[in-house]
Amino acid sequence: MPHFVSLPVLVPMLAGILLLLPPSGKNLQARRIVSSIMALLTLVVSGYMLNNALSGEIFVYAIGNWQAPFGIVLVADVMSSLLVTLTSFLALICVLYSLCGDDEAGSFFHPLLHFLLLGVNGAFLTGDLFNLFVFFEVLLISSYALLMHSSDKHKTQSALHYVVLNLVGSSVFLVALGILYGVLGTLNIADMAAKAALLSGDDRALLNIGGMLLLIVFALKAAVIPLQFWLPATYASALPVVAALFAIMTKVGIYAIIRVYPTIFVDPNDASTHIAQVWLWPAAIITLVIGILGVLASKDLRMIVANLVIVSIGTLIAAVAFNTPGAIAAALYYLVHSTLVTAGLFLLADVIGKQRGKVGVRLVPAKPIGQPILLGTSFIVFVLAVVGMPPFSGFIGKVWLLQEALNVDKAAWFWAVYLVVSLLVLVTLTRAGSQLFWRHNGQEPSETKATSCQLVGVISLLLCSPLLSIFAGPISEITTLAATQVFDTFGLQQAVLGGK
């Protein structure tokens, strides 16, 4: 049995426990050392798992050696391994960035970060829906506490909205699971796929009801219209390093939609479609429009970046609605790109804000930035990557998505909306850059400089976009293999259930 599949879940769990125990639980320096080492170890084991998954084999780890569908299984294919590696890399960057002082506001920043990593990695690897719910709760509880880290009145209000909405989502999730278990007698994804294919009549209708309730939950996690209103204020008010880590959170909802619907909720009248597809397309277009309206209305850089997350979600949901292997492959490439770039922008906004004094990143005149060339160049690179200008990864991701759109009958709508949205993003970020770097209030330049750990975090994420372009060939092959496995339901059943 491939035990390495469990390591991206076990290592963060062990890290969280160690960081709560003496001596690291009482000593900041010890916490930082343990957290950095364990974050690096999580990235190493995640990379090892991804390297094994690239062989095309689906690895299944049965916890306690209880075989599916009766026991809990973790499933590592290319898509789940890729996203686990992405999450582990982002977590390591956030740990290093927090060493500049963001972890000093509370005693539990580092254990909470690793418990969040445990929940996200577990959600990507789990092979059944009930444990997807469990891992959702683990990551949500950790995220609640991280939102309150170094809290003030504004953060508390945003966190309350986030908590209430997600508690409602958890309740709906449990209702959906009850319906699905009542119909199918199992919550193992591979086993559900096998049994769902045999349903008809009222049982099929109940299955679809459960599937639509699940779609509400996943749409809430992913911040899809009309369930996206919690995201901008929550992300903009969170500690910047926490907001950067949260860049992967919405992608868990996207992953769940990709994983569950083409596998279980296939339309019996058309095997190439699933029951959520008809709803995803209009949701994607409206999410793009709402996201760009939020970008245009934002009055500070952090709120702009938070709304850019919604724009990226609309883009990904559109690709998922296309429901072809090519579109899913393009979506996974774009997912990696958008996660790293938006996380980098959150960190860069923090550095800029600290050098502008009390004004922060509000788009008003302020004292000149202390490192205008370094931060200005970084801002330009991030903007070009977000907008999708060559030679950065955003260009490759967007061209790939536009090309895949030509294979569906809604290409004209997607092209028109998407290109207009990209143009407005460029205009808004250009205006924001001019406000932040050129409009001064006559004061002396700031003496505040970025610390070494801040530079490591920002530059590491900055370099990801050109590297994704340089290695676009191999990475696109990885995402194409991942997309092929998504639609190979029989292969998943053989790997998880064997001859059962």
Task: Kindly describe this structure.
71% of the residues lie in helices and 2% in strands. It has helices at 7-20, 28-53, 78-98, 109-125, 129-147, 153-184, 189-196, 201-222, 231-237, 240-245, 249-260, 277-297, 301-322, 325-355, 372-387, 393-405, 411-437, 452-470, 472-486, 489-497; strands at 59-62, 73-76. Strands 1-2 form a two-stranded antiparallel sheet. The two termini are 18 Å apart. 56% of the residues are buried.
How is the topology of this model organized?
Elements: H1 7-20, H2 28-53, E1 59-62, E2 73-76, H3 78-98, H4 109-125, H5 129-147, H6 153-184, H7 189-196, H8 201-222, H9 231-237, H10 240-245, H11 249-260, H12 277-297, H13 301-322, H14 325-355, H15 372-387, H16 393-405, H17 411-437, H18 452-470, H19 472-486, H20 489-497
Antiparallel strand pairs: 1-2
Helix pairs in contact: 1-2, 1-4, 2-3, 3-4, 3-14, 3-18, 3-19, 4-5, 5-6, 6-8, 6-9, 7-20, 8-11, 9-13, 11-13, 12-13, 12-17, 13-14, 13-17, 14-15, 14-16, 14-18, 14-19, 15-17, 15-18
